[in-house]
Amino acid sequence: MSLRSRLRRFLFLLALSAPVLAQTGFRIETILGDPFSPSATQPDGIPATAARFTSINGVAVDAAGLIYIADTASHRVRRVNRDGSITTIAGTGAPGYSGDGGPATRAALDSPYGLAVDAAGSVFIADYGNACIRRVDPSGVIRTVASTARFTGPRNIAAASSGDLYVSDFAGHAVYRIFPNGSTSVIAGAASSIPVRAPAGVATDGLGAVYVADSGNRRVLRIAGGASTTILDAQSPDLALGTPLSLSLDAFGTLLIADTLSGRVIERAPNGAFAVWPASGAGLSAVTEVALSPRGAAYVSDRTRLVRIVPDSPPEAIAGAENDAAVLSAPLDAPIGLTLDKTGNLFIAEEASRRIRKLAPDGDVSTAATGSLLEDPVAIAHDPAFGLRIADYQSNRILGVSSAGDLYAVSGDGQPGTSSEGDFAVAARWNKPRALVFDSAGNLFIADSLNHRVRRIGLDGRVTTVAGTGAPGFSPAGGRGTGSALNTPTALAAGPQDTIYIADAGNHAVFALSRTGDLTRIAGSGLAGDSGDAGPATQARLRFPAGLAVAPDGVLYIADTYNHRIRRVLPTGIIETIAGDGVAGLSGDGGPAQSARLHTPTALALDSAGNLYVADLENNRIRRLFLPSPQIEPAQPQSSAPPPAVTSQLLLRNAASLAAGPISPGERLAVSADPASELLIDGRAAPRLATGDGIIEVQAPYALTPGSTASLELWLANRLVAKRSLPVAPSSPGLYTAAHGNAVLIHDDGSRNSVDKPAARGAVVSVFLTGAGRLSPLPPDGAPARDPLPEPVLPVSVLIGGAPVDVLWAGAAPGLIGIIQVNFRLPGLFTPPGARSIRVNIGGIESQDEVTVHLR
Description:
The protein is mostly beta strands.
């Protein structure tokens, strides 16, 4: 495809993107959540025992006694210093892949698991979500370890004194040995003669023997000389093994095993004798990680805390805050269900803490329900007459809360099952109830997820099926509810005329069940994906929707959970994204919801004012989407005298990135102004390029001098209405993006890059930006670029996932004004597939954050 053909395709795609970006005006904010939540900024320098962790999945101790902790959900690796304080050594807190060759604290990790420290002090990280191993050297610089291994999900890692690394590929069911020169061999799984399933912990004695926690087969293996020996398994007569996840071996041959299923640490002495340490003896609720220090201390962790155990001494807390009432008075722990009562109280099901919280309209937070009956609360509903009802997933029960706050069983005996039609609720059985909702009459509808049905407890107390056949399936055309197959219904909402909306998560679709029992598909094509905005909702692709809410006017809101977005279906049947850019993370509070980042939104609740509440599960937050109140100007008295000049601040931004800041020569600027306005820059009218809703787009003059200050004036009908001064920068690059923060990146065939159409690694592609500064030869202001195509005077470079790539050409886009095209080659096979960040650097100044491209 020729350069000009590619540009015509770009302009067409950009025109299609513009309406999507302008459709919604929702803003986003956090209204409740842990200040130390996994993805929030965690303070360094505080005592490690005051730090909060949610998913400790890696612990390592170096020869100097420094302790390293991988907190998987916060995408960070942290260090406990000798003075007991805590420091982040790698990760920004948001998932991603970037930063190689720079400071590890500015690099993005994605779900780090196992850790290892070598004799030189380098820390190795199993970067599970990025399917690679990364190393932080003693100077704090991070790099990806080069390897021919094609990891699927590396979970644990061990460093031998020889410099070899041993890596368990949990998702790939293999164990690899990586040599110092980067070559690799398979020692278990894959093409080897030693089968393993979901291998986790690994340890080595440095003499060639490797120990593997073969968790899927519930055994621990010793591998040496190409042969394996089982040293402990689930059939061991004296000490049956549960699920081993972590191993640690000291220099004397003592092996520790974290048996997570049974909640204990198993010690194997050098002579082969076994001993058991229960987790409760260390003050822990479970066991997920073990590590032996070179000095003989044992470190044991559950998900949130780490303790040190030495012989003949009580356990010592090393890291992780105690879960006392004071600490947890405001933070949330896995908020997964939401409901509102008629007075505006927001109730929150906290799955990990096994309780129901209440957020009152005045901001007061209290516990509405807790107790031994709550094993796994995942959903809640409220009715003025019946009060709260709770779906308890693991216990297969529906619970109620009395006016005194006491829990009681409404339905289910704790055993999974089903029941005959018409049985009373007290005798009914459920199989993982996942959602519930009341209709206007007080009937309670329940998503009986693993029975693949929606069932109703009527006012007479009897249970009947209203949708689903009991077997998983997909009925795209709908029909009678009881004759249509569902697949793991996960969310419910009640709408106008008592229509019940069903998120059929396993089919990636949403259905509406009418009062007469007819089922109609409302959204989702039935295939997993992320597409369809601005088109028919039934042709869009969702990914495991897990939350629903319906407005009185029939607008349906969907938590598109594993696309990390909130979408809505308008009464016209059109679907659009209103929050989330499609990348898991935590950002955007106070700004436009469409460019914010969510992480696994799982429940929605809509109040009478139109505010939408979101349970942002992995961020441990409740976030609110709202429409800003319009600013109404007071009526001005009529006067025959000309109005005085208004010298308010002028609002303008880079037309591509929408970032405020200095301007640069030739940059396209978006100015908030009446369409009839004219912008003067240093006394000269800036060429007008486009006019939109309250926006004019102009070009800054190429004659601007970097380092100077430009005077900007906005005039309307011969009246000065706003003015300001701005510094002039050599460049101010802003990348053009489509919906959800994806760069407008054009493939060789002219198609646009997206999550559903990723680019091949190593392919040549093009991106587009404005704000490159001076060009040579200098084109006229406000004129499209023609041959010879001008090129930036400043050097241009591109980073994909934090790594530099080969730039093939950069210059003015033909036929366009103020837009630069950059052609470059995407990185090759050593870059993991998926969403990767992109930055364009022009003369040392980088384009905006949080822009992604998709690689396959």
